[in-house]
Amino acid sequence: MSFSDARKVRGLYRAEVASARRISPNFVRVTLAGDDLERLPRHGFDHWVRLFLPHPSGARTDFSSLPETFGVGGYVKYLRQKSDSRPVVRSYTIRAQRAREIDIDFVAHGDEGPAGSWAQRATAGEPVALIDQGRGFDLPDDAGFHLLVGDESALPAVLCILRDLPADATGLAIVEVPHIADAQDVVMPEGVELRWLVRSNPKTIPGRLALQELRDFSPPDPETVAAFIVGEQALATGGRRHLVSLGTPKPQIEFTGFWRVGRAAG
C-alpha cells in the first residue's frame, strides 16, 4: 500500500505511556500500552500511525472528539477542536509491536518540535491516541534490488523494512544519523548492505550526506531497483530525481519528505 492509500485505513486506538527511555544520544523510545492495541493490525514493514499527544502547554487535552480516519473529513473534525485543548498530531512508524504494546522511537534533541520534546519528559500513565495508517512501503514481486535511503527521521521506517524483507532480498540501505551511537542493530537479509553515515559536523545540513552517498552509488540494474527514499525534503526529491536520471521507473520509487530544514519535524 502506498502513502496515498493510507486514508482508506480506519481505526482510532486509545493508549497510555507505559515507559519512556533514551536509547541513544538522539532517540527516545516510548512504549505505549492499552487494551485497544490488542486489536491493532500488524502491517509490518514501515507500519505507521497518526499519533495524538498531550497539548504542549500542559493544559488538559481533549482526546474525546478525535476522528476515526485522517482524510479530509477527519482532519476538519480535528481542527474543529479548541486549539488550547487539541492534541498535537504527528506521524510515526511503529518500531515494535507486541500484544497490547507498541514502541515508537522519537528523534529528540533539545526542545525542537512538540513531539520530540514531549517524548523526553513523557511519564507513565499519560494518555495518547492513534489512528492506524497501514504502511507506505510496497514490496514489489519482481524487485531486483532494494534501495532504502533516509536520515534520522526515517531510521525507524528503514530498519523495520529491513527486518521484514524476504530472506533472499538484495540491496543497499543508507541511513544518516547525527551520532554513531544512534545506529541500531537490526536483523536483515544477508544480501542487503547497511551503511551508517555519521553527520559529525553540526553545520552539515541533515540529509546531505545520504543524498551524496546515493549519488555516488551505481545500482547493478537501475530498471529493476525498488527504492524507498524518505527524510528531509531535499533528500527525498533529490534522491528520486537522481534515480530517474539513471533509468529507474518513477512508479518504483517511493519518496516522502518527512520534514524541511528550518521547520521542526516532530
UniProtKB/TrEMBL annotation:
Domain FAD-binding FR-type: 10-140
Organism: Tessaracoccus bendigoensis DSM 12906
MF-aspect GO terms: oxidoreductase activity
Gene3D superfamilies in the cross-refs: Nucleotide-binding domain of ferredoxin-NADP reductase (FNR) module, Translation factors
Coiled coil (UniProt feature): none
Name by which UniProt lists this protein: NADPH-dependent ferric siderophore reductase, contains FAD-binding and SIP domains
